[in-house]
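User: Please run a holo structure prediction.
Assistant: Happy to. Please share the sequence and the ligand.
User: Here you go; the ligand is biotin.
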Amino acid sequence: MAQVQKLFPLLQLLADGRFHSGEAIGEVLGVSRAAVWKKLQQLSDLGLQVESVKGRGYCLAEPICLFDEENLQQFAKAQGLPLVHILPEVDSSNAYLLRLLAEEKVAANTVAVAEWQSAGRGRRGRQWQSPFAKNLYFSQLFCFEQGVSQLDGLSLVVGLSVVDALTGLGCECQLKWPNDVLYNNKKLAGILLEMTGDPSGLCYVVAGVGLNVNMKNSGGAIDQAWVSLAQALGEVVDKNKLTTKIMLELQKNIALFKAEGFAAFAQRWHKVDAFLEQQVVLHLGEKQIFATDKGVNEKGELLLDVDGQLQSFNGGEVSLRKL
Ligand code: BTN
């Protein structure tokens, strides 16, 4: 990967997806036409496609939105939100916060966002595709004082916070247990919680959110039905605004969760449950359980009606049953 930061002035210029002449780019960057050409070629190392049309110049095939450090930090400060680490590139924003924590170099509630992840982590050891600048890669560190028993339903609350933020932006989305955010039954965002610390005392959770924002094409790298927020809303989305919305919702919901646990969220969760009262299959390793989805209990466990008996589950992968 080319040195990402060096390409930022060019990226900022081309982010609007419009044509810019080689001459105009050279002037803004203060470099020669030959240097412009070299830099444009480096953009393909970031997976960005540049189109060139004689007489019009160069444009990005898909518009992008970059993090605006000044704007984001100022807004966060004004709203009493935590500090945001804005990373041009990282292996995984979750791993980054866990590393800082191990080195005792980070305060609770710190957020890290990245433009690009070289080793984005998904649930169940899967990879999370993280193309440059197109999507949101967000992690936040939370601290809990009463051990893992205080964490029941936390991942569902993070999911609800993302849904609240997206609903506020006009995207009516739903949740698939435990925390996949769906729009029209396609995956819009995924959440990965990673815990460390004392299971019966002070423990830390890094909550990672991967949200498809302006991506139009994954180049076939994603093996499930997906959708981006831009596709859902029909317009390019500002990642900065989206980030602050998610931070605000998390701040509110995590405070309530710490005070009252998941019980305070169960009803709200049912309202956005993508599969409520539908015929589903729960995949538990090799085992498949056919049942009717009955939502979640006060611990955030999945409730299923299996042959007339209500049963709770806290693992597995649920999908709609094809009848
Ligand atoms: C899933 O598999 O559905 C969860 C995906 C979570 C991806 C996010 S992107 C930001 C954070 N950093 C990571 O490496 N993973 C999470």
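Residues 277 and 302 are 12 Å apart (CA to CA).
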